[in-house]
Amino acid sequence: MGNVVVDGWVDRIVISNPGSMLVSVSEFYEGQHSVCRNPLLQKMFVFIGVGEKAGSGADVIVKGWEDQKWAKPVLNEHIEPERVEMVMEMFKGEDVESGFIGKELARSWQGVGKELGVDFQILERIANYCKEPKSLAEIARHLGLSDRYKMKKKYIDPLLGRYLEMTLPETPNSPAQRYVMTGVGRAMV
Prior knowledge:
By secondary structure, the chain is α+β, with helices and mostly antiparallel strands. It contains nine helices and six strands; from the N terminus they run E-E-H-H-H-E-E-H-H-H-H-H-E-E-H. The protein has helices at 25-30, 39-47, 58-67, 93-98, 109-116, 120-129, 136-143, 148-159, 183-188; strands at 5-8, 12-18, 74-78, 83-89, 164-166, 179-181. Helix 5 crosses helix 6 and helix 7 (136-143) packs across helix 8 (148-159). The model is unreliable at 96-106 (pLDDT under 50).
């Protein structure tokens, strides 16, 4: 299955957890909704005083980010392998506009491509094209790729959360779904 992974950078924290969501994205952000995978284990932790029954945590994180006027944490669900990832960026939208986030944070697309193992020139083309929200079909057509599902898995999914975001994150498979660059992504264009 895998382990919980917490990665910290200067501008963001990413928490990645094996498995799938057991509540909807909106319920997750609201907090107080919990579906336990292992009720006996949860009961044991509550009994010894190191666990709780109500689903809390996400709402506390979102409130903390709002208090700092940072971007709302983004939740991404990955299918293979099955993982849930929360990306928590630690900068304000105006920081990108003012140039506060500079070269040290906004890395090059060449570096991102190398890190992800994909052609950085395609990433640059996606970034330039997705300054405004675009559908998967529009992006695939722009890149000259015929299989938008393979394109999504290879190029779009690795960018989600950090550089690219969904316009309808609560309904990722909606026919109205569009993709647009995040503040960090726009800073690199």
